[in-house]
Design a protein that fits this description.
The protein is mainly α and 474 residues long. It has helices at 2-17, 19-62, 69-75, 94-97, 121-126, 130-146, 151-156, 158-164, 169-180, 184-200, 207-237, 241-270, 276-289, 297-312, 324-358, 367-378, 382-409, 422-427, 438-443, 446-468; strands at residues 77-80, 100-103. The protein has one domain (2-473). It has 20 helices and two strands.
Length: 474
C-alpha cells in the first residue's frame, strides 16, 4: 500500500511540475465552477419566475367574477413544472420539452414556452452546463492525465527500475489509479456543496433531493472510473505515450460525439413520430367518428340522451330535474379525455421508446447510459416530463368537471342560467404537483444500469489485464 501511495505521489508531483497537466486541471476546475454558478443562477431565476407567474395565474382564476361556469372553465389556467434542485446539475430535456401547460376544456395540450425557442442558434450551440463538464470535460482531463501513466514509464525506462525495486504490476496499477483520482477532487467538492445546499435550503426537496444528488455523485464517479480504467489499460498496452494519447482521444471522441448522434439516428429510424398536424388530426377524427365502434358524435349523443331520460324517468329533456347542458358537457368531455389519453399515451410511449433505442449506440462509449441515468436522477428526462403532464391532465379534468357539475346541479332541463362567483373559483384547489421519488426514477432504467455495469466491469478487466502483461516485460 505504501508503494502504491508513493507512486501516486510521484505522479502528482510530475503532474504539478508539468505546466500543461496543471493548466488542464485548473481549466477543468474553473469550467466546472463557472458552469455550476451559471446553472444555479439560471435555475433560481426560473423558479422565481415560476412562483411569481403561478401566483398571478391563480389570482386571476380566483377573481374572474360572476359568469357561466363553463365560460369560467374556458378562462383556463397555466400550470408549471417545478424544477428540483438536482435539475441544475443536468437540465435534460427541459429546454426542449417546456415546463408550462395550458389547461382549458375539451382538449389536452402539449407543453408550451420551451426555453430553447427563445435562444438564438449560436446560444443553443454554446449552451453547456454542469452536465457538459461532467460528461465531456472531466473525461478529457482523465485522458490527458492518464495517457502516459505506463507508456511514459516504459519510454523513460523507469518501469524496469521500479520492477527491480519490487514494485509489482498490481501495486503500479493501484498507484496510477490513485493518482488519477485527482480528477475526482473538484467533482466531489462540487457535489458536496450541492448536498450542503440541499440540506440547508428551505423547500429544496428534502431527503429525496439529497438522495438524487448523492446518487448523481456516485454515477459520475463510476463514469470517470471507467475512463480511468480505459486510460490505464491503453497506456499499459501502447508502445509509446503519443500512441496512447492518440488512441484515447479517438475513444473520447467516439464516446462524446459519435455515440449521441448515432444513438439519435438509431432511435429515429426505429421509432417514428407523427407530425403535429397528424397527431391532432387523429384526435379530431376519433372524437368525431368514434373509437372502437363507439359511433360518431351524433350517435353517441342520441345514446346519451336516451340513457339520461331513462335514468331520470322523464320523456322530454325539458322535464329533467338537472341541467342537460352540464350532463352533456360531462359526457362529451369524458369521451374526449379518453381519446386524448389514447393518443397522448401512444406519443409518450414513442418518446420513451426512442430514449431506450438511443442506448443501442452505447457500444461506442459509456456516455449514453450515464446521460440517461443522469437525467433520470436530476428529474429532467422524458419520463419525468410525462409524469408532470399526466398530473396536469388529471387536474384539468378535475376543475373542468367541477364546472360542468355545477351547471348540472344549478339548472333544470334545457335551461342554462347558472352562474359561478369568486367563492366557487376559490373553492377549486390550486394545482399541487408532487414529483415522483428517486426510486421511481430508476425503476425503468434497468437497461442503462446494465450497460453502465458492463462498461465498468469491462473497463476494469481491460486495465487489470493490461497491467498483468507488464510482468512479461521485465
Amino acid at each position: 500500500m505504501k508503494r502504491a501511495v508513493a507512486i501516486a505521489a510521484k505522479d502528482l508531483r510530475e503532474a504539478a511540475g508539468d505546466g500543461r497537466a496543471l493548466l488542464a486541471w485548473a481549466l477543468a476546475v474553473a469550467v466546472l465552477l463557472v458552469a455550476a454558478l451559471q446553472g444555479w443562477a439560471t435555475q433560481r431565476q426560473a423558479e422565481a419566475e415560476r412562483t411569481e407567474v403561478s401566483a398571478r395565474v391563480r389570482a386571476q382564476w380566483e377573481t374572474q367574477g360572476d359568469k357561466n361556469p363553463h365560460a369560467g372553465a374556458h378562462f383556463g389556467q397555466y400550470v408549471f413544472q417545478s424544477a428540483g434542485l438536482a435539475a441544475f446539475i443536468d437540465p435534460g430535456v427541459s429546454a426542449e420539452a417546456g415546463r408550462a401547460i395550458w389547461l382549458d376544456p375539451h382538449r389536452r395540450n402539449l407543453a408550451r414556452f420551451k426555453p430553447a425557442e427563445d435562444q438564438s442558434p449560436a446560444a443553443r450551440l454554446a449552451r453547456g452546463g454542469v452536465d457538459a463538464v461532467l460528461q465531456w470535460v472531466l473525461p478529457l482531463l482523465v485522458v490527458l492525465l492518464g495517457f502516459g501513466a505506463v507508456a511514459g514509464e516504459r519510454e523513460a525506462g523507469t518501469w524496469r527500475l521500479l520492477a527491480s525495486l519490487g514494485v509489482t504490476p498490481g501495486r503500479l496499477f493501484a498507484g496510477k489509479l490513485t493518482g488519477l483520482g485527482l480528477v475526482l477532487v473538484p467533482m466531489l467538492a462540487f457535489f458536496g456543496a450541492a448536498l450542503a445546499l440541499a440540506a440547508v435550503q428551505e423547500g429544496a426537496g428534502g431527503p429525496d433531493t439529497l438522495a438524487r444528488i448523492a446518487l448523481l455523485a456516485g454515477l459520475y464517479t463510476l463514469y470517470l472510473a471507467i475512463f480511468g480504467f480505459i486510460a490505464l489499460g491503453v497506456s499499459a498496452r501502447a508502445a509509446s505515450a503519443s500512441r496512447s494519447l492518440a488512441l484515447l482521444l479517438v475513444l473520447w471522441g467516439l464516446n462524446g460525439f459519435v455515440a449521441p448522434r448515432l444513438g439519435s439516428a438509431i432511435a429515429e429510424a426505429a421509432v417514428s413520430l407523427p407530425s403535429s398536424e397528424q397527431f391532432h388530426a387523429a384526435i379530431h377524427h376519433d372524437i368525431q367518428h368514434g373509437m372502437d365502434q363507439d359511433g360518431d358524435a351524433d350517435a353517441r349523443y342520441q345514446r346519451f340522451l336516451a340513457a339520461t331520460l331513462e335514468k331520470y324517468r322523464v320523456s322530454r329533456a325539458e322535464d329533467l330535474p338537472v341541467g342537460l347542458r352540464g350532463l352533456r358537457l360531462l359526457d362529451n368531455d369524458g369521451y374526449s379525455a379518453r381519446v386524448h389519453e389514447k393518443h397522448f399515451n401512444a406519443l409518450e410511449d414513442r418518446f420513451i421508446a426512442q430514449a431506450d433505442w438511443q442506448l443501442a449506440a452505447s457500444l461506442a462509449g459509456p456516455l449514453l447510459p450515464v446521460r440517461t441515468l443522469s437525467q433520470a436522477l436530476a428529474g429532467t428526462d422524458i419520463r419525468h416530463h410525462a409524469h408532470f403532464a399526466r398530473a396536469a391532465e388529471a387536474y384539468r379534468r378535475g376543475f373542468v368537471d367541477a364546472t360542468s357539475e355545477r351547471i348540472a346541479q344549478h339548472n333544470a332541463g334545457t335551461v342554462n342560467t347558472a352562474l359561478a362567483d369568486n367563492t366557487f373559483w376559490k373553492s377549486l384547489p390550486p394545482f399541487d404537483y408532487q414529483p415522483p421519488a428517486w426510486t421511481w426514477a430508476l425503476a425503468g432504467q434497468w437497461r442503462a444500469l446494465a450497460l453502465l455495469a458492463v462498461w465498468l466491469l469491462g473497463a476494469a478487466w481491460f486495465a487489470v489485464s493490461g497491467f498483468k502483461r507488464l510482468a512479461r516485460e521485465v
